[in-house]
Amino acid sequence: MNDKTPKRIFHIGSLLAISMAALFAIFMLLQLTARLLSGMETTTAVQVTADNSFTTTGWFFREETVADAVSSETVRHIVYSGEKVQKNAALAVVYTDTEALEISQQVGVLSDEVELLTAAIASTTSGSDTSRLDREIAAQISSLSAAVQSGVTTGVQNETTALRNLCLRRSASELDSATLSARLSALTTERDSLEQQLAGRSVTIASPASGYFSDIVDGLEGELTLERMETITVEELKELERTYEEGSGGNQLGKIIQNFRWYFVTVVPTSEISELEAGDSLRLRFSQVEEDIPVTVYAIRAERGADEAVLVLSGMDVTPELVTMRHQQAEVIYSSYTGIQVPKSAVRIQTDSEGNQQQGVYILTGNVQRFKPIEILYEADDYYVVQQGITSEDTGLVVGDNIIVRARGLDEVRIVS
């Protein structure tokens, strides 16, 4: 019995020593982690899009024809800016007095009601599928809501009328067709009577050409022509800047832009366009337009050794906002880069055992630091845009990675300047 006692004591002592060693190792690891994490600064990886661009102010040159009429309080517009029209199509109606204009407005309201009632009567006689109408109403509401939320108001009036039409057709099954017919007859009679009162009290203004209508006339339609655009100089554009007065086109009814293609002409430093040439594809960004406008470089004109040049950009997009612009600030975008934003202070060089160097960043996962190499796409003043990884297991950075910007444990790693 006594011979076995020392062995048991030795066994217990060994376990105690091992436990103490393990506890000491854990303590040292915690101390090291605390030392590394103390003073650590991190930032969350986010996706950004950076533009290589510059801002300038320029002029729209187009093929334009002014309508032969003036705007007044007795004008009722039939088309609005951005709408496409054919030659000789009605642009507006000019009434002899305000009373005639008010009567015409009443006729418009009555005509709208007549149209809706006609649709309702057709629904009562055809036995429309209410479930189908419900789906159409829901789709129309969704479309109208999306248009309003995005700020795109073109066509909203037509969509609203269509929605009212659907709603009336949906409820038509609960209405008495005889009552609807009587109401339709009364409204039609009232409308026809008012139309007779308008006889000889209005003049219709026809479009002088086919194209896109704009209700803005600035007086430069005969000056900023396509012919002049081909030869205009830096000094002439600067003189135009000094003498231009916005809204100096009088009270003309409007004008027709006769071509899809338009030109945006501006004076820019030659340093900004040193790498551009005719035919290059760019984008224009206007604050009033929801999406960037694709353009091409039509011409670059500069005298030898000059610090500034005339840049002519050509585009074909037509929107209600664009057709009303003349003198406009824009951002000219060469290219865009989408990736992960990385502060420059976070980028470091890692050297492996064979002496190969690779730039990247350290990320923090829990209490573990991990190096991820990066591929720089774009450089700004204080950050890079780098290639984005596909998944968190990929070697590239992904959205949500915790990038270490500063930490004591990384002080010995050389920082990229």
- What's the total number of strands? 20
Shape: flat
Extract low-pLDDT stretches. 411-417
Chain oligomer state: single chain
Distance between the termini: 74 Å
Average pLDDT, rounded to a whole number, is 82
Helix content: 25-40%
Beta content comes to 25-35%
Structural class: alpha+beta
What's the story with the biggest beta sheet? 6 strands, antiparallel, barrel
Order of helices and strands: HEEEEEEHHHHEEHHEEEEEEEEEEEE
Strand order of the largest sheet: 2-10-13-12-11-14
Number of helices: 7
Radius of gyration: 36 Å
Quick recap of the structure?
The protein has helices spanning 5-37, 98-126, 130-150, 156-171, 177-197, 226-229, 234-243, and strands at residues 41-44, 47-61, 64-66, 75-77, 84-85, 90-95, 202-206, 211-214, 255-257, 262-269, 281-285, 293-301, 308-315, 327-343, 348-351, 357-365, 368-373, 376-379, 383-386, 402-406. With 417 residues, the chain is α+β, with helices and mostly antiparallel strands.
